[in-house]
Write a structure and sequence with these properties.
Blueprint lengths: L2 H5 L5 E12 L9 E18 L3 E6 L8 E4 L10 H13 L6 E8 L9 H17 L5 H16 L6 H8 L4 E6 L5 E5 L5 E6 L9 H17 L12 H4 L6 H23 L3 H17 L6 H11 L4 E7 L6 E6 L4 H16 L4 E4 L2
Parallel strand pairs: 3-5
Antiparallel strand pairs: 1-2, 2-5, 2-6, 3-4, 6-7, 8-10, 8-11, 9-10
Helix pairs in contact: 2-4, 3-4, 3-5, 4-5, 6-8, 8-9, 10-11
The chain binds alpha-D-galactopyranose.
Length: 362
Amino acid sequence: MTFEQLFGTNPLVRASAPGRVNLIGEHTDYNGGYVLPTVIPQRTVVELARRSGGRVRALSVNAGKPVPFEYIVGTESRRGRWIDYLQGITWVLTKAGFGLGGADIRIESTVPLGSGLSSSAALEIALLRAFRDAYTLPLEDVQMALLGQRAENEFVGAPVGVMDQMACTLAGPGQALFLDTRSLDWTVVPLPSSAELIVLNSGVTHNHAKGDYRTRRAECEEAARRLGVAQLRDLDVQDLPRVMELPEPFGRRARHVVTEDARVLAAVRALESGDVEALGQLFYASHDSMRDDYDVSIAEIDLVVDLARAMPEVHGARLTGGGFGGSVVMLVKPGTGAAVASRIAADYAARSGKTPTVLVPE
Ligand code: GLA
């Protein structure tokens, strides 16, 4: 259904934001560390018309329900459904002092949900951009990223870091966003033309408002407390002997974060010198660390990575995003992406019984 068929008028604004794929730097953002995401071509599009009064009517064509959800700005309440992301945005904008009226909203997305590719942040940032444009709100990019994160933390109830919102706001095609999540300093690093990316969705979904992500975050905070630092970011590889004296599972959790921060810095150096072989090895090392130390991989994802390891065209592969399902990012020889992706997808489907999707190359 088009916006006009739904609401009997044309939208005033049309805004969008991309999904992201994290190249490396996983579970480092809520520890004050480094991340290196880029965008994927899939996007979330929000069409919005202003309404007088405070009523919001919203429909997501991906959510399956043909009837718009309705509420009044200022009366948001959590429902445990996709609509919480929208309610979270009007809630956080109001909290931050941005006066809003009502809106008619149509949402359509090609970012797969719960697949480690940041469908949540794409929706948050697309909504923030639409409200900014429709209501001429003086919002800057980093401020929007922080508001999106706050909506997700405080309204939706998912204790996520800031990587996804920053990536969806600031990263662009063909470049990685190198972000220090503590200072919020960032630069963009061009992706080399001497390699190609594959992003393969395993078809196993996750939900970060549920327990496992929260547990990992709490374990990191406890490890930092026991080690006497504000955040795990304050440690480096020289501290590993001390880190590994912590009891289970805190030592392994902290070791993942400390080594992953070091891998992000090494990955930036590899990108800058065009060393795709080294970058690929860092992908594999990151995956092993997420599987063995952080315990966020699953059998299906390990299978995809192992299939990748067996192919000479692949430089490296790893679980991307929060884990417990989701997608794998691979670095492959230029010109081989489409063929390698379809071979791995076919082998994976045959062995796992799951339905994979190749998001990149499109
Ligand atoms: C999810 C969160 C991010 C980050 C990743 C793991 O995508 O939204 O903030 O913590 O998991 O790196």
